């Protein structure tokens, strides 16, 4: 259908930039790309379905931002340099205003992280956005989930839980007058965390020199740390678990107010959509990593430790008692 081609030329062709003269982006049956020497290809994909992965009211700009950001976040967790991406877009209708805003969001994020759109597919149906992105990592240097071992420090970047609180703001799922503890600015910053996650690509690149394992926090800290434990246990052939120290888990001012009001730690521990990195590092490597990250003004905190005991134990402080009440709150939210 010729309308489809107009749509692609108008909204997506301008994003197919920064390719070298012998590479091919949008417009042929496939993209033709030249891999950098001595690198390995990292490929990631993620689908967002309207009403499932984002509220139906989400702006087109934010849908585009999130669809690309969640893929960039996977590349970040692998320690990869962004390469290019494709976009499979299913739309209920050809709505120029929606597409204009969508392509602006996509253009802005792809410009910020220097990644080109090189192809895709456009179909009619319920709003669904699939991005497949690729990136590059020096041979043998990809950071895997499986490299953690007993004694490693567990670290997290940024603040955790704000996207979960933002979802409550967006969906108005507060109980009673709970939201009164949050200012307008708090709510806006949580909505921003939900709708415009900042993939931690620069941090991921630094971690290739230091981290033993990494994952991006998409399903919630406990679930995602659980993936590191599962893969690393399988790799080492030993039982690996973790302890986490609540007083070290990085949270925003807004989240601090929320927890003071409700006593509920489930958002930082198990809400998804933060797209920060959770990684492990051998204790002997922490000082060098920390010095480097402080110099780069990258915000990372140790929040716990890998141990040879099954499961995740949560303590108020390092050396404190295990908090069984916190665990029971969180179990209600767990995926595993
Ligand atoms: P084919 O039938 O060979 O799969 P299409 O007709 O679907 O090709 O698409 C034509 C060109 O436009 C291809 O280069 C394809 O990659 C690109 N394209 C289609 N939809 C999109 C989209 N949503 N975003 C970016 N590029 C797209
Ligand atoms: Mg074809």
Question: How are the SSEs ordered, and which strands pair?
Answer:
Layout: H1 2-12, E1 39-49, H2 60-78, E2 81-91, H3 96-112, E3 116-124, E4 128-138, E5 153-157, H4 162-171, H5 184-195, H6 201-207, E6 211-216, H7 221-236, E7 241-245, H8 253-262, H9 266-270, E8 277-281, H10 283-295, E9 300-307, E10 312-315, H11 324-331
Parallel strand pairs: 2-3, 7-10
Antiparallel strand pairs: 1-4, 2-4, 5-8, 5-9, 6-8, 7-9
Helix pairs in contact: 2-3, 2-6, 4-5
The structure holds adenosine-5'-diphosphate and magnesium ion.
Could you characterize what this model shows?
- This protein has eleven helices and ten strands.
- It is an alpha+beta fold.
- Strands 6-8-5-9-7-10 form a six-stranded mixed β-sheet, sandwiched between helices. It has a four-stranded mixed β-sheet with strand order 1-4-2-3.
- Helix 2 runs parallel beside helix 6 and helix 4 packs across helix 5 (184-195).
- The protein is globular.
- The structure holds adenosine-5'-diphosphate (ADP) and magnesium ion.
């Amino acid at each position: 259908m010729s309308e489809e081609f107009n749509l692609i030329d108008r909204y997506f062709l301008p994003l197919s930039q920064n390719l070298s003269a012998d590479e091919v982006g949008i417009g042929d049956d496939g993209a033709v790309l030249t891999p950098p020497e001595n690198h390995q290809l990292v490929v990631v994909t993620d689908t967002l379905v309207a009403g499932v992965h984002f509220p139906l009211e989400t702006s087109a700009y934010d849908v585009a931002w999130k669809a690309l950001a969640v893929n960039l976040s996977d590349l970040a967790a692998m320690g990869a340099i962004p390469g290019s991406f494709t976009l499979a877009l299913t739309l209920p209708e050809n709505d120029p205003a929606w597409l204009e805003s969508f392509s602006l969001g996509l253009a802005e994020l792809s410009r910020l992280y220097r990644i080109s759109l090189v192809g895709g597919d456009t179909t009619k149906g319920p709003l669904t956005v699939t991005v497949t992105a690729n990136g590059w990592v020096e041979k043998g240097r990809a950071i895997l989930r499986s490299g953690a071992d007993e004694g490693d420090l567990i670290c997290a970047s940024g603040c955790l839980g704000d996207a979960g609180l933002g979802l409550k703001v967006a969906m108005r799922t507060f109980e009673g007058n709970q939201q009164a503890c949050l200012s307008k600015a708090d709510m806006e910053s949580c909505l921003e965390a939900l709708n415009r996650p900042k993939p931690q690509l620069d941090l991921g690149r630094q971690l290739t020199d230091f981290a033993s394992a990494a994952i991006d926090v998409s399903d919630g800290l406990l679930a995602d740390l659980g993936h590191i434990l599962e893969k690393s246990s399988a790799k080492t052939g030993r039982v690996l678990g973790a302890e986490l120290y609540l007083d070290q888990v990085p949270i925003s001012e807004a989240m601090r107010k929320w927890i003071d009001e409700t006593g509920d730690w489930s958002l930082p521990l198990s809400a998804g959509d933060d797209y920060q990195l959770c990684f492990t590092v051998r204790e002997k490597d922490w000082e060098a990593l920390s010095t480097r990250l402080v110099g780069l003004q990258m915000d990372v905190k140790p929040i716990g430790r890998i141990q040879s005991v099954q499961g995740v134990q949560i303590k108020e402080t390092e050396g404190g008692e295990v908090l069984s009440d916190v665990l029971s709150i969180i179990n209600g939210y767990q995926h595993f």
